UniProtKB/TrEMBL annotation:
PANTHER family: HIGH MOBILITY GROUP PROTEIN DSP1, MITOCHONDRIAL TRANSCRIPTION FACTOR A, ISOFORM B. It comes from the Eukaryota. This is HMG box domain-containing protein. Its main location: nucleus. Keywords: Coiled coil, DNA-binding, Nucleus. SUPFAM superfamilies: HMG-box (SSF47095).
Amino acid sequence: MAEPDTANLRAQLEVISKETSFFKKYFALRKRCEQLQQSNEKLVNRIQHVKKLIKRYKRDKRYLSTRLDEHGDNYRDAEVPHMWEEDQLYGNLRTPRLFQGIDSNSEAETRGRFEHKSALSSIQPLLQAHGIRSMDATAKMRKIKTEKEKDPNAPKKPANAFLMFCTTQRTVLQEEYFKEHKEEIAHHELTKSLAQQWNALVPEEKRVYYEMYEREKERYEREMRNYKPKPEPGSEASACTTSEPHTSSINEILKTSFKEELDA
């Protein structure tokens, strides 16, 4: 009787191992399908965006063609330059590539920064002549003024009732999913399951978390009454406010200076 029992156990173990391997393959394929679906949705959105751009460019092309025809321009008879001729014509406007491994996005960003700096450097003498400091320094001061450092000693804001529910039930849900599926639950599935469980709660069960939220609010208000924020340096704030030029004033100065140069 011992040999048939051993054979049955071996057969059951083989079936369980096969089912486990099938489950692993199933979840791997399911995860891959979800990734492909997300990438397909991104491609569809990108195609729609490109179609809108093409439609707008066609409309601009028709408008330009109409305006050129009204002025009698012979743009249809103009010769289109070849690629190497364009490189020779516009080579001076293009910034050299510093590294061979830079992609197109970083190259475009570098070119935009270079053109921005060259445009600012062309009007720097005019701004300095009127007593205005550089635009880069003004932008840095404005950034320092707008961005405030977070105080680590400040009281922590209370989380709402749903976040408290997620904090208490997240670990339980992860353990249950791991016991059932033998793998960790994905982040989006975890969020979805927590939201479904929260919506399935009756008002009496939700009241526990709302009471926790009210206690956290009282704690936060009590700590805020006793909290003293760090004093901000007044010199830097005054320097930022006094040195920040308004856009309209700069435009007026540029207009008047250009008008004086034309009159001269």
